[in-house]
Amino acid sequence: MHEQANKILQALTGAGFDDARVSITEADVNELNIAHNHVSLMRTTQNQSLAVMAIKDKRRVTASVSSLDESVIEKVIADLQRDVATSPQDEAYAVAPGQSGDFTKGPQSVDRDAIAAAAKSLLQSRSEEFPSFQIEECAIKHTLAKNTLVTTADTQLSSSVGSYEVMIMGSSKDEHGSSSFTYTGGEMDALPERLTEVLDIGEIMANSVQETQTSMIKEKFTGDVVLMPMAVMDLIGWLTSQLGDGALISQTSVYQKSVGDMIGAPSLTIRNNPEGAGERAYNGEGFTIGPVTLVDGGKLTRLLPTYYGSRKLDIPYTASGGSWSIDPGSISRADMQASVERGALVGRLSMGSPAPNGDFSGVIKNSFLLENGVRTQALTETMITGNVAQMLQDIQAISAEVSDFGGSRLPWLKISGLRFS
């Protein structure tokens, strides 16, 4: 792969390009699928892909294909030569310089017996503990992804990353009715004996079977939410999108000039997790990833532009990866829930695209009413209204318990001041 990537790089420079980046990935996947509570398929697949970025006269073109045949590569280069003439010029286009390393991580071979045992234990747990929960789709798989990335600026990187991944989606159905869909998933270095003990799988099943009987709130009120980890993931996703190229270059980010400012509660610290299962040691631009603290005790430490964005905006660049973790707090989930006078335990946020300033109104799903610290009925047709940026400021508590999804490690959050309707 490394030799082939450099050969393609030479062909690009020979075709007249000033700079280029070539990335080749080969992946071996062993996968077992479950559909409608039954094992439906076990398969082994191999695939390869080529991604190219090339620059000529300050114009950039990209291409990606799923074949490394010589004729395909020749056509890709010819198409790039044709298309680059109509690409807009931008002095910010560049490739990663001087990065190097050869990285191996995670299980490099598959244990098919472990995959089969994990599926068996999941189906047994569902049947014995949560019989009304229906597994609509589930995939348990091992992936070994080998990658080589090279640039004309002396970057030479390669990696071999193995991991197990589980994705599950389902709902519950009984004599009372049906619940809404729920899901979870993530990566790990080894499969446990009981899948219900990882990735909040047991938690979402237990909640789902209680969601076949739902109620609407009786009146509008302002209260607290306790966000489960999957809902916290939505919150962090909004924050990082505000710190990326799209919002920064269009100057619509609420954090455009907030580096060094308190953007969250003093208890909030957000870090990347480059050592997490399935995480590669460098990003798609060709920069190695080190430890990054994005929010330190509520204070924003940096923005997250791409290398192009950093050059375009003349701001610092940090290779951080795409997964984030929140430092745990000191309060238990049970005590956090018990402290809520009126509000909701929220499993999933469905808030679409908040306004540029963070205002949103969205439906809460897989959620339960909290009254005087007690979880009561499952909720339906319940909306919360607020501002996402303000939610980060209004974090009242962070749980000591953390759910590990591989790259992301997330606790439960208690946030005040949301309007319910």
From TrEMBL:
GO terms for molecular function: metallopeptidase activity. InterPro entries: Metalloprtase-TldD/E_C, PmbA, TldD/PmbA_N, TldD/PmbA_sf. Residues 224-420 form the Metalloprotease TldD/E C-terminal domain. One of its GO terms (cellular component) is cytosol. Signal peptide: none annotated. Gene3D superfamilies: PmbA/TldD superfamily. Pfam families: PmbA_TldD_3rd. It comes from the Bacteria. One of its GO terms (biological process) is proteolysis. PANTHER family: METALLOPROTEASE PMBA. This is Metallopeptidase TldD-related protein. The lineage of its organism: Bacteria, Pseudomonadati, Pseudomonadota, Gammaproteobacteria, Cellvibrionales.
